[in-house]
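Dear support,

I submitted the protein below through the web form. The confirmation email said the job was done, but the results page showed an empty box. After a refresh the structure appeared. I'm attaching both so you can tell me whether what I see now is the final result or a partial one.
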Amino acid sequence: MKIHVGYTGFLKIQEIEKNPVIEMPEGSTIMDLFQRIGLKKDAQRNVQAFINQDAAWKSTKLKDNDQVNIVAYITGG
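What the results page shows now:
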């Protein structure tokens, strides 16, 4: 299935910059997508995924042609 992926914030995800349409197997989750695009575990703690503009858990299953946006948290003080 094809997943359309975008991101905002300070992330630099080369896999998405090369091709924003990622091929994933049926039954894949947001966590599977994170692993597929090479998002490191440290970075995974500091992002929120949205599927078709709705917030999603890492365990949320993806569907063909979903639009996933990965947003990095901005922290500081």
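Response: this is the final, complete result; the empty box was a page-load delay. The helical segments are 14-18, 30-36, 41-44.
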